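Same chain as my last thread, 84 residues:
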Amino acid sequence: MIDKKAAEKLKNIIGKNYTSKLIEFARENGKLTQYKNKPTLQVLFSMVMTGRRDLPEVEDVILECAALYKEKSEAQSEKIKALI
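reply #2:
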């Protein structure tokens, strides 16, 4: 289960409109295919992030997406440092 501190860190890593980014990530990678409806996925992601639901498969998608965005962020900061 994702607690409040972890949820805030994950939101900061993923960025603004995190639910939309999570939905896009899940669809691109073939995750959570049983949920075809976008509003259903938005509610699931927000409920897991606020701690109201404990769904391990949704948490796995959130963590994978956060890892991807963190990797992208680190790569971008390295490029910036190389230019300066």
